[in-house]
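Sequence design from tokenized structure. All designs in this work follow the same two-part layout: the structure record, then the generated sequence. An example of the structure record is given first.
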């Protein structure tokens, strides 16, 4: 059933013109594989889960995390001038370490203890490692990932302009198109919060996470998790635009509340356009494997944020769509960390049976289901989070009127309109993500109640 529905949805992903939905091209990685960083440690028989590693259960294993920690310890003892040689002598290095990341707290301590010379040497020798290692400061990750992005674009451009075989050149062109989409999405025109690239995988389908705002000190952090058919090449700019719109809406609401209250001052937000896993296509949308990968990668990213923020924790929310909601539900039920709010739209379900199974403080879980969206109620991957037995709260998406801002709110129809600017869904996402769930309008509320509900007092 899900596959038949997916065929229809694939023609209008995220409201964009229909595009061919490619599977990850296996030969593309060959264009850059010759410069792949070497192994930091001896080959190990079984890798744990990690940002770019295979799926695990409940996180990186103790054994592999320990091996990663030993590797970082070794790097801390090598003279800065020998770090590049150390990497060059060990061919599968960074991939293994990223697949078996030590806890972010350990990485943060390791990085803080390195002298400036070793830090610089590591940035030069392996921007891929530092760009994706949770616990490394986000400013370093941004610089490292941009370096990796630009270097790879230059290498692929050289392949395209060389006398390499036709297949190699075509693969390079495809990969260039994907990386160019990331470059374009990083441009902000100087009118928005700074954009940082905190995750980057240049191989295959590609993965990236672009942040609008400052993860180092934002009071509210929201992760947008996409579902099926989202690719870097075709939807990165759209997803960053959605994160930008959410960022703007959150800040407008915060400014409104600040003007009304002497107790609210200069609160800030950061929104993460997160495409940190291989979203499924028509060939694998009915399988759970990609959700396993999304579960692990999302959990690692949030644990990394919480480790870096230490005693200054932000209010963390997830807004997850479609297949991405399955990954998010799995992360929140199978990993030992908590977030503050969760919004699910167009969800095909997950193994989690109820809100009580989720690590969301106060059961602050909302579910939205648009008219003519065929995915909700399918329960394809487990219980329907929109059912009464699941215990989530209703999130209105059908449109209405915002009596506070005095503006109409458009409705969402079908599977791909939840993130439309000016929609009731986006209004409710914004309020939920800044700890104002008391102002979220329920879908089933009568017209009069929907109009006056936002007048309610703040609940803490």
């Amino acid at each position: 059933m899900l596959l038949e529905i997916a065929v229809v949805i694939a023609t209008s992903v995220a409201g964009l013109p229909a595009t061919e939905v490619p599977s990850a091209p296996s030969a593309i990685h060959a264009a850059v594989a010759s410069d792949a960083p070497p192994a930091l440690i001896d080959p190990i028989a079984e890798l744990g889960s990690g940002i770019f590693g295979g799926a695990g259960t409940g996180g990186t294993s103790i054994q592999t995390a320990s091996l990663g920690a030993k590797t970082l310890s070794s790097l801390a003892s090598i003279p800065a001038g020998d770090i590049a040689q150390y990497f060059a002598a060990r061919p599968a290095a960074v991939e293994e370490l990223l697949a078996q990341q030590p806890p972010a707290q350990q990485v943060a301590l390791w990085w803080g203890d390195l002298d400036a010379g070793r830090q610089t040497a590591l940035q030069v020798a392996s921007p891929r490692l530092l760009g994706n290692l949770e616990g490394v400061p986000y400013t370093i990750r941004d610089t490292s990932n941009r370096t990796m992005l630009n270097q790879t674009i230059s290498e692929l451009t050289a392949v395209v302009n060389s006398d390499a075989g036709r297949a190699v050149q075509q693969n390079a062109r495809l990969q260039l198109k994907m990386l160019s989409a990331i470059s374009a999405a990083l441009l902000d025109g100087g009118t928005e919060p700074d954009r940082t690239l905190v995750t980057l995988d240049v191989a295959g389908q590609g993965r990236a996470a672009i942040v609008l705002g400052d993860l180092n000190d934002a009071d509210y952090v929201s992760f947008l998790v996409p579902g099926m058919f989202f690719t870097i090449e075709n939807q990165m700019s759209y997803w960053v635009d959605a994160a930008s719109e959410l960022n703007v809406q959150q800040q407008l609401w915060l400014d409104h509340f600040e003007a009304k209250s002497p107790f609210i001052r200069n609160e800030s937000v950061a929104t993460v356009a997160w495409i940190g896993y291989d979203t499924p296509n028509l060939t694998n949308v009915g399988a759970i494997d990609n959700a396993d990968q999304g579960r692990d990668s999302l959990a690692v990213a949030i644990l990394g944020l919480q480790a870096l923020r230490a005693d200054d924790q932000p209010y963390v929310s997830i807004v997850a769509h479609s297949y991405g909601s399955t990954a998010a539900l799995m992360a929140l039920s199978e990993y030992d960390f908590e977030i503050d709010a969760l919004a699910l739209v167009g969800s095909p379900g997950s193994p989690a049976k109820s809100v009580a199974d989720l690590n969301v403080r106060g059961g602050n879980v909302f579910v939205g289901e648009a008219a003519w969206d065929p995915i909700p109620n399918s329960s394809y991957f487990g219980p329907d989070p929109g059912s009464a037995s699941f215990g989530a709260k209703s999130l209105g998406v059908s449109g209405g009127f915002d009596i506070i801002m005095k503006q109409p709110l458009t409705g969402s129809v079908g599977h791909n309109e939840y993130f439309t600017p000016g929609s009731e869904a986006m209004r409710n996402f914004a309020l939920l993500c800044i700890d104002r769930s008391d102002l979220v309008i329920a879908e089933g509320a009568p017209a009069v109640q929907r109009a006056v509900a936002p007048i309610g007092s703040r609940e803490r």
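The radius of gyration is 22 Å. We note this feature because it recurs in several other targets discussed in the main text.
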